[in-house]
Amino acid sequence: MRSRPSIRRCARLLLHALPAFATAAEMPAVTAASLFENERLWPYRVTLIEPWQPADREEPLKVGSSGVLIRVEPRGVARIDFSAEGKRQVPIERTDLVESANRIRRGELAKQAPNFVHAIATRLVDSASGTLAGLSPEAIAGRPGFLCVFTDPDDEAFEALAVALAPLRDRHGVVTVLFPQGTHPDARTRERLRSLGWTVPFLYDFLSEPYTRTLIDESTTMPAVLLQTDEGRVVYQGGLRADDVQELTAALDAAFGSAPVPAVATGAGGGR
Q: C-alpha 206: how far from its chain's center?
């Protein structure tokens, strides 16, 4: 049976985020041009304030259409998950993103945790645990970034990838998370990781595919990697080869090398 994190544990996770927003009201007002750089003020949910016409739909998405913000892109668009309407790249000015960011800045809109942490905190399996169990939300609280790895654990190159990526586990406090591709029972994925000594957390099997399509485009060639902040801002994205992780390592060091490294909780990606 799967062990799910308790509501009390989730509440403790959210409390970790409070100090980060204590001085937000002292920041300058957010604009569409500065939104990308103010990720800590990104809201979790987004609403259209103007109709927007996707290229693959006959009718535009209506004012009031709401979705989950995946991330803000540097070219003035936001990647939003509109559920049944799909993942869309929407111009920022068509949304309430700037308004909501300023409401968070002024303390008028609550933001309880960084967006990506909020999205996955209770959806990870702890492969370092002695039994099949969910990862404690506290294990990722306060972490500055996440190295998301998209690959099939049954692929013949998986072992080589695990060996190549092992030195990046918990580097500068960044958590490695596996998004298993294909259909794999959670118990089998856990045993596969443990057999390789690469006990990183991974998405539950029934969530891995939809979360993969939320974070990266369907046309992405696998295996792939996405290095992002705790809010979801992309630092590095690309294909993944076991014999070539130098560029990824350099990107991780450049983005997180000066970040404070939090104490590593058991099961957060290290076999402790």
A: 17
